[in-house]
Amino acid sequence: MSRVRRYLTATLTAVAAASLGIPSAGASIKLVEPLVPATTAVTCDPLDPAACLLPFPSDFFTVADGSTDTGRRINFSIDAMPRNGTEVTEGGEGKPADPSEWNRNDGFSPGSMVMTYVPGIDLQQTWGTADRPHSTAGVNEQGYFDHRDHIADIGLYQNPDAPIVIIDTETGQRHPFWSELDQHPSAVSAGEQVLIMRPAINFTEGHRYVVALRNLKDSAGTEIAAGETFTAFKNGASNDVARQQHFDDNIFPVLEKAGIAKDDLYLAWDFTVASERNLSERMLHIRDDAFAQLGDTDLSDRKVQGASPQFVVDSVENRNDGWKDSRGRDHSQVIRRVQGRITVPNYMDRIQQTEGHVKGNQLPYDVPAPGSRFFEDPTDSDTLPDQNPVESTVQVPFMCDVVISEDGEPSEKRHGVLYGHGLLGTRSQLGDLKSPRRNGPFWGCAADWWGMSSPDLPTVAAILTDISNVPSLADRAQQGFLNFMYLGRAMVHPQGFAAHEAFRGDNGKDVIKTATPSGQTHLSYDGNSQGGIMGGSLVAVSPDIHRAILGVPGMNYSTLLNRSVDWEGSYAEIYYAAYQDPIERQIGFALIQMLWDRGESNGYAAHMTDDPYENTPKHEVMLQVAYSDHQVANVAAEVEARTIGANVMQGLGPGRHWALDPFYELTSYPYKGSSLIYWDSGNATPPNGNLAPSEGSDPHGHPRSEPAAGWQEAVFLLSGWNIDVCGGGPYNTDNHPVNKGVPSCQEPDVPAADYDPPAI
Cα(398)–Cα(290) distance, rounded to whole angstroms? Predict the structure, then answer.
């Protein structure tokens, strides 16, 4: 474990210990036995007595509101919310999460996990796949595969007799998803495995969906009977007159039209997805307001107008950087590291920085005021953030690496790249930008991901012990996106960094490319891990970024967490000590996601590429994925690719994918446009369920270390073309056992900047 990760884990554990009374850093946390689900109260949905908020998501927990784009508004009662603390009992003595921020939403997450508890369900019997091939090897062992699971054949949702369907009421079409039971050891041992349906493509913003479960079976193949409450609705005999009318008018007719008989149903309900405006309006509002202060109000043309953001330079230092390309040739660059601060309008409600945070980058970090939120009118739930009148701007630290010379020759002008760091890191990870920079004409800058950087550790710890604190992360993340956009504008503005001597080469040589008033910018983005996850949000709202590399990415933390060794290795223990019932833990993930959508790709994915937000240009994106990544689940990257319209490129060897029938069509090289590219280090196939891969060494960092991958990235950022670098064969990394030190993938013998993509 790295020094930084040890520090992060110790800090999180210490903060959690203070709030929960659990053992502090260095001590193991013993989890108590899972608790009996809370007794159903008037605030709970009686359709599923296993937990108050099941089934989830559900319009049972919304109310009509003509002021919203969906006509609905979330209406969680505080008594229905998950409770934390070591003293939680069936009576509900723990502290419930405050639903206030959730109740500002006009629907549920577009990536929402759909959940209910079905006692005794066997999904392989239910889907009729029990006789399909599977290996004798266990999970996280070489040779593992299991084609009996729905994730191995997502297309089963289209079968006429599919036992589970999710129908878009506006189109009448079934929505693609896969179903799984909670495989986390705590859920298995407690016998509390909630049924989870995860969208294979994000749900459409603002649409209403009907979920239907029918002909469900147990392990003996016996059909499971519907509960009394739902049976009453099926029979038109419920005492809840208003809800009976809703079923009769808005749910059963949808299912009947889809050929699903009411008598066959085990359970059905509906839910509404949050609207585009509700998901994005805060971020787009502060962006438009901040850029208007520079004098640029047309952000869709990717052209610089108005002034550059103001900044100061604090330090300048040169270094030498040497490496070998995939053909064994030596290269070198002289890199000038420039550190400084950029002035950004501040929309947060309290002090964001101390002097040490602004100028320092050593452990331990200075931190922002805990609980920071947007500066808003507290009397108006529909208000948008205002600029803080007391602390109207913040000085955001940045770090840039400018290429002064390469292989002994003065550098020519280079395109700017914004870099996004990894999990709870800092801008000091800018060095990871080396892959495209070494292979193409690029230089780079980085800032901290506010909301998910090292200084945010206390806030993260507070969230793990009480999910009421999630809004602080979401708000700071959006301010963080604005910080990055201002940094990017200074990179491409002719009167920005280019006009400062620190960013010029020897003898004042101009080494960075900028935009002109009549020309478009060519700013790129490259981020890895958390930088790949949050980077998709930044790309979606950026006025200057054209193309982006999202390295080892995914989206939707509610899918990612159980499937990541980062979560299960440290942070999870704190959350599990606070929320001790396995079913409510999964509900907690889903609730967190509803607000986290504002700070990660899941909430912005529908508008990341060719369907941009208003006043925003289109973008192109390459998802560079490590097969069987231990930290960021491959399934989450594939959902992102489908949602943004990225094609999956040929590259995995035969039989390597976990699916009997992968839910996508492979695209052949060369291809122009957004893409997903797998790199394979030979690890065992990832688990089908919500468990983390752990076999072998973690391939998470391998793709960015491939020289051939860096060349491929550089060509994409320059031209939008995806060019084969593996000669038509599998995309095996240098770490793959078959290579034995001899790379199977090599970049063409021509610099990326000089490569002439084929005419097709």
Answer: 18
1-34 burial, b at 16+ Cβ within 10 Å, e below that, comes to eeebeebbbebbbebbbebbebeeeeeebeeeeb
Residues 6+ apart with CB under 8 A from 129: 147, 148, 149, 150, 153, 156
DSSP string, 699-724: GGGHHHH-HHHHHHHHHHHHHSEE--
Specify whether the CB–CB gap between 541 and 600 falls below 8 A.
no
- Is residue 89 domain-shared with residue 191, that is, in the same domain? yes
**In this structure, are residues 426 and 399 in contact, taking their beta carbons and an 8 Å threshold?**
no
Q: DSSP secondary-structure letter at 341?
A: E
209, 356: one domain: no
DSSP 195: E
Q: 708 lies in which domain range?
A: 525-556+600-760
Q: For residue 99, say if its preceding peptide bond is cis, omega within 30 degrees of 0.
A: no
CA–CA separation, 521 vs 515, rounded Å?
5
pLDDT in tens, 630-658: 999 999 999 999 999 999 999 999 999 99
pLDDT in tens, 492-518: 999 999 999 999 998 899 999 998 777
- Amino acid identity, residue 211? V
Q: Is position 131 within any domain? A: yes
What pLDDT, on the 0 to 100 scale, is given for residue 27? 34
Contact partners, residue 728, CB within 8 Å, separation at least 6? 650, 669
**Which two tokens mark 532?**
């790949």
Rg over CA atoms, the chain: 26
State whether 173 and 216 are in the same domain.
yes
For β-strands 195-199 and 114-116, DSSP reports them as antiparallel
Tokens of 385: 């953030």
* Interval 576-597: pLDDT, tens: 999 999 999 999 999 999 999 9
Count of CB atoms within 10 A of residue 317's CB?
Answer: 9
Same-domain pairing of 194 and 282 = no
**Residue showing tokens 């200074």:** 490
Instruction: For 317-379, give the DSSP string.
Output: EEEEEEEE-TT--EEEEEEEEEEEEEEEE--BSS----HHHHH---SSPP-PPTT--B---TT
Higher pLDDT, 246 or 760: 246
At 138-190, the pLDDT tens digits run: 999 999 999 999 999 999 999 999 999 999 999 999 999 999 999 999 999 99
Task: In whole angstroms, give the CA distance from residue 197 to residue 590.
Answer: 12
Same domain, 247 and 299: no
Instruction: Copy the structure tokens of residue 281.
Output: 């309006």
At residue 463, the 3 state secondary structure works out as helix
Q: Tokens 């998501």, residue?
A: 57
CA distance 468 to 579: 13
Which residues have C-beta within 8 Å of that of residue 338, sequence separation ≥ 6? 313, 315, 316, 399, 400, 401, 402, 497, 502, 503
* Type of residue numbered 589: F
Check: CB of residue 277 under 8 Å from CB of residue 614: no
Q: In the numeric block, which tokens belong to residue 36?
A: 């009996």
Cα–Cα distances in angstroms (integers) from residue 131 to residues 128, 147, 161, 182, 191, in the given order: 8, 9, 18, 22, 24
The total domain count for the chain is 3
Q: Angle 372-110-529 (CA atoms, 0-180°, nearest 5)?
A: 60
- Whether 572 is covered by a domain: the verdict is no
Q: Would you say residue 427 has pLDDT above 60? A: yes
Encoding tokens for residue 658? Answer: 């976990």
Retrieve residue 209's tokens: 């969906």
734 SS3 class: coil
By residue count, the chain amounts to 760
Tens of pLDDT, residue by residue over 181-193, are 999 999 999 999 9
Token pair, residue 164, equals 């589970």
Question: CA 195, CA 158: separation in Å to the nearest integer?
Answer: 19
